[in-house]
Write a structure and sequence with these properties.
The structure holds 2 protein chains of 2 kinds. Chain A is of the alpha+beta class. Chain A has a single domain (42-316), classed as Cytochrome-c3 Hydrogenase, chain B. Chain A has 15 helices and 10 strands. Chain B has a single domain, classed as Rossmann fold (3-Layer(aba) Sandwich), CATH 3.40.50. In chain B, helix 1 (2-12) packs antiparallel against helix 5. The longest helix of chain B is centred in the C-terminal third of the chain and has 23 residues, at 126-148. Chain B is globular and about 55 Å long. Classes of the chains: A alpha+beta, B alpha/beta.
Chain lengths: 374, 149
């Protein structure tokens, strides 16, 4: 029997259709149907200046909106051959890691909600509010920050705000140990997660899983390693696990939070004085850049013609993670409830996922990932 | 008498369904933030469960993409009377940045279903969403309940 879930359903936060093929209570196979949030962002960006396009790139995804603007700005900077002032690079790291904290906490809280564990859901959301406060203190906005510009960041941070940000991080850290232990050592919740939705390392590579989802299966990739700011000035550990089940994915996301907190502390401690924005002489050319968004690598491929954008294509992590989730994780899962929880651990973000729409002759529209088109 | 009792009941228990008809998730995460202990939506008698068949208030986010043109009306019809739709964010009001050449959106949402209230912002803050639901929701639902008779 096929159980359709969505597009609007209590278990889902975003419009997507999940088709589960069941045998009795067991879920044998899953299929995803995309196409509910295709807005044509890349097409709108064509022929626009970066000031207009960066505004759109922020609205590719509302949860990890920050990393999109940073990657966009860095790509244009690479084309124009500009070095960003060091203070701006440090401010970018602070904002990026704050964004990662809130996104990971949101992803985990959604998972706990799908497991019907209301206590943890509430606690994790409460922790997230402190990260949101810090983001608001630093940038002035909660979700779409508008923080990056080509050549630096929009404005200098107020040094007085660093103190409350550090205090907020301390609150998150104090809560963190208890919350993590509640999940990792609580028998009821941990037992329901261990060994469910297992994706081996080979399958993760085959399904192109990235970010915490790939790292939970044993993949090493983290695009912060290799990024110029992180390599030269920061010290951090890439979190990796090998089990590849729901438990590992949730813990990978949890364990990355202390790393992010330590990165923010390093940045605030060592932040240099100076300019935050440099004038950019825009050149024509092509560049590709990858960065580590909360959900994995995000790639921008931009071709410019003077100040105008000629061609742009955006690769987001969600589509690879969701595809590998449907293909490898939801396979022989004991119950339908577990299948929905497995879908939630892949941290799906449907708004990210939909870039290219292909209409065939019969008029049927399908949304495809760019690699499959070329 | 019966109407008065019904009004009280309707006003004090509001079920909300978030309908993302093609947004960027920004407004959705702010709606989820409302559930957190800081804002604590449930102390006002509001319950978010994302099930259109039990909803009194449909929170619309997003700029009505191609797939949602027919589905939006269908979701709205599924919700039992009395019901209202509240547009959250700029997208369902005007299409925001997506209403340009090349964009595949069909905003505003009020072309497809009646919208009772609009909350502008990209995205609006959680307390603004909460304020709007509380300011418009109870009375609008009670009024619509009386109209429907």
């Amino acid at each position: 029997m096929i159980v359709p879930i969505g597009p609007i359903h209590p278990a889902l936060k975003e419009p997507i259709r999940l088709k589960l093929q069941t045998e009795g209570e067991r879920v044998v196979k899953a299929e995803l149907e995309y196409g509910y949030v295709h807005r044509g962002i890349e097409k709108i960006m064509e022929g626009k200046t970066w000031q207009k396009a960066i505004y759109l790139s922020e609205r590719v995804c509302g949860i990890c909106s920050y990393e999109h603007t940073q990657t966009f700005a860095e790509t244009i900077e690479q084309i124009s051959d500009v070095d960003v002032p060091l203070r701006a690079q440090f401010l970018r790291v602070i904002t990026n890691e704050l964004d990662r904290i809130q996104s990971h906490l949101l992803g985990n809280s959604t998972f706990f909600k799908s497991m019907d564990h209301e206590t943890l859901f509430m606690r994790v959301l409460e922790m997230r509010e402190y990260a949101m406060d810090s983001i608001e203190l630093l940038t002035g906005n909660r979700v779409n920050m508008g923080w990056n510009v080509v050549g630096g960041v929009r404005m200098d941070a107020d040094e007085r705000h660093f103190e409350p940000i550090l205090k907020n991080l301390e609150i998150i850290e104090n809560e963190f140990e208890r919350t993590r232990a509640l999940f990792a050592e609580g028998p009821a919740l941990a037992l329901r997660c261990k060994g469910i939705g297992v994706m081996t390392k080979k399958e993760a590579i085959k399904g192109r899983a990235v970010g915490p989802i790939g790292r939970a299966s044993g993949i090493k990739e983290d695009y912060r390693v290799g990024h110029y700011t992180y390599d030269d000035h920061f010290d951090f550990k890439v979190i990796r696990r090998t089990e590849g089940d729901n438990y590992a994915r949730t813990l990978t996301r949890f364990d990355e939070i202390p790393e992010s907190i330590s990165l923010i502390r390093q940045a605030i401690e060592n932040i240099p004085e100076g300019e935050v924005r440099t004038p950019v002489d825009l050149k024509s050319g092509y560049a590709m850049r990858q960065n580590e968004a909360p959900r994995g690598e995000v790639t921008y491929m931009i071709e410019t013609n003077g100040p105008l954008i000629k061609n742009i294509s955006i690769r987001t992590p969600s589509i690879a993670n969701m595809d590998s989730c449907a293909k490898y994780m939801i396979r022989d899962v004991p119950t339908v409830a577990d299948a929905v929880a497995t879908y939630a651990t892949s941290d799906p973000c449907v708004a990210c996922a939909e870039r290219v729409a292909i209409t065939n002759e019969a008029g049927k529209t399908t949304i495809k990932y760019l690699d499959e088109v070329i | 008498m019966l109407d008065a009792i019904k009004d009280v009941v309707r006003k004090s228990s509001i079920h909300v369904c978030i309908v993302n008809c093609g947004g960027c998730n920004g407004c959705d995460v702010e709606c989820v933030a409302l559930l957190s202990p800081r804002y604590d939506l449930e102390q006002f008698g509001i319950y978010v469960h994302n099930n259109p068949r039990e909803a009194d208030v449909l929170l619309l986010t997003g700029a009505v993409t191609e797939q949602w043109k027919d589905n939006l009306k269908r979701i709205y019809d599924k919700a039992p009377e009395p019901k209202i739709a509240v547009a959250v964010g700029n997208c369902p009001i005007s299409g925001d940045v997506f209403a340009q050449e090349g964009g595949h959106v069909n905003a505003p949402a009020s072309n497809f279903i009646p919208v009772a209230a609009e909350i502008p912002g990209c995205p609006p803050r959680p307390n603004e969403i909460l304020e709007a639901i509380l300011a418009v929701g109870p009375q609008a639902i009670a009024d619509r309940g009386r109209e429907q008779k």
